[in-house]
Amino acid sequence: MSSRSKPSHAQGSLSENSTYEQHQNPISWFIFGLMASVTFIGILSELMPSGILPQMTEGLGVEQTQVGFLVGIYALASAIFAIPLISMTLWVNRKVLLLLLLTGFAVSNLVVGLTSSYPLIVTMRIIGGICAGIMWPMIAAYGTALVPENLHGKAITIIMAGNTFGVSLGLPIMTFIGTLVSWRTSFLVLGALGALIALLAAKYLPSVQGEKLTQSNSPIAVLKIPAVWIVLILTLLSVVAHYSTYTYITLLVESIDFVGGISLALLIFGIGSVISVILSAKIIDTHLRGLIVAMLACGMITMLLFVFFRGTNGFAHLAFLLWGLAFGPLVTMYQTAVSKQVTEAKAVATSVQSSVFNFSIMIATWVAGLILLNLPEVGVFGIVYLSILCFIPAIIITLLVKKTLDA
């Protein structure tokens, strides 16, 4: 990648046609914080209907399942289109592509907030999902192009922190707005926020040229790497372990008679997530395998605490904190891990990982639903057992692949 002269840091921005010299630039907290705001918009765009489901159901005059479908179709579009569209847009300047995606997020959310047509809302959700499918892997590769290799993990961690803050902070705020004012206001605020971030990105984000798609950086070439498959398997196991139970966290809180209810459970979970993201940023580049083992162990201990102590005061609260710790770096760990397995085509590699991540969420929710339907006597604890059964092989695999994850 060619490099050009860069203005001083006092200027606060880079010209549209300039590029970073990746071996001379440390982490810029402003630049990467701005990138984190993009992932913040991405995760909120996906999860918004789940926080204001009753309001949307009443406002649109549809069934709850139809509003729930708006979350599922977004994730499905992300999973299906990530790999082909990342490959098709690999040559596009990273900044230009990101601005197009932010425009897509802004328009889709604004239209949802303004229309009463359910089919049009579904269409906008599909457009938002397509933008997310491109954004998640692309922005990780964009960020790593701005720093030397020994800071790749830290860069991805900061960028993906937007995901954690979106779940732990953004969604409760948007839900509050949707409940207090109206569900349409939530979407309009999110759309306006996306437009504002697009303007800031246009002014401050550096330009990074795309790359030509070749046989060596195609999805097929990436999937020929055994180490990539190890990361994909770990992604599947970890996502199913977390999301199967998290999907029914409200039911879990009710089943264990958790003192403080779902609001306190989510607050403690969010605090744990934020703590783990901050800590992982410091060690992910030097102790990736140790971080993955620790996070998987925290997840399994969480589920064991639920099984053996149920809602016992103190133990249950500790369980939600540990769960948050385990959940926080989930996206970051495996995007960093798969990125380390390739020297080029990082966007393609992370798109493959992102697709597996999204498909794994769908698998998790589907299997969890089957457990609740077919094993009513076990209830939500059947899902907790499923989580444990996924955490165990994930920990074993991580312990065995020292060379792969420590590379």
Automatic annotation (TrEMBL):
<feature type="transmembrane region" description="Helical">
    <location>
        <begin position="315"/>
        <end position="334"/>
    </location>
</feature>
<dbReference type="GO" id="GO:0022857">
    <property type="term" value="F:transmembrane transporter activity"/>
</dbReference>
<feature type="transmembrane region" description="Helical">
    <location>
        <begin position="187"/>
        <end position="206"/>
    </location>
</feature>
<protein>
    <submittedName>
        <fullName>Putative MFS family arabinose efflux permease</fullName>
    </submittedName>
</protein>
<feature type="transmembrane region" description="Helical">
    <location>
        <begin position="27"/>
        <end position="47"/>
    </location>
</feature>
<dbReference type="InterPro" id="IPR011701">
    <property type="entry name" value="MFS"/>
</dbReference>
<feature type="transmembrane region" description="Helical">
    <location>
        <begin position="98"/>
        <end position="120"/>
    </location>
</feature>
<dbReference type="InterPro" id="IPR036259">
    <property type="entry name" value="MFS_trans_sf"/>
</dbReference>
<feature type="transmembrane region" description="Helical">
    <location>
        <begin position="159"/>
        <end position="181"/>
    </location>
</feature>
<dbReference type="GO" id="GO:0005886">
    <property type="term" value="C:plasma membrane"/>
</dbReference>
<feature type="transmembrane region" description="Helical">
    <location>
        <begin position="258"/>
        <end position="279"/>
    </location>
</feature>
<feature type="transmembrane region" description="Helical">
    <location>
        <begin position="379"/>
        <end position="401"/>
    </location>
</feature>
<keyword id="KW-0472">Membrane</keyword>
<feature type="domain" description="Major facilitator superfamily (MFS) profile">
    <location>
        <begin position="31"/>
        <end position="405"/>
    </location>
</feature>
<feature type="transmembrane region" description="Helical">
    <location>
        <begin position="227"/>
        <end position="246"/>
    </location>
</feature>
<feature type="transmembrane region" description="Helical">
    <location>
        <begin position="355"/>
        <end position="373"/>
    </location>
</feature>
<keyword id="KW-0812">Transmembrane</keyword>
<feature type="transmembrane region" description="Helical">
    <location>
        <begin position="126"/>
        <end position="147"/>
    </location>
</feature>
<feature type="transmembrane region" description="Helical">
    <location>
        <begin position="67"/>
        <end position="86"/>
    </location>
</feature>
<dbReference type="InterPro" id="IPR020846">
    <property type="entry name" value="MFS_dom"/>
</dbReference>
<keyword id="KW-1133">Transmembrane helix</keyword>
<keyword id="KW-1003">Cell membrane</keyword>
<dbReference type="InterPro" id="IPR050189">
    <property type="entry name" value="MFS_Efflux_Transporters"/>
</dbReference>
<dbReference type="Pfam" id="PF07690">
    <property type="entry name" value="MFS_1"/>
</dbReference>
<feature type="transmembrane region" description="Helical">
    <location>
        <begin position="291"/>
        <end position="309"/>
    </location>
</feature>
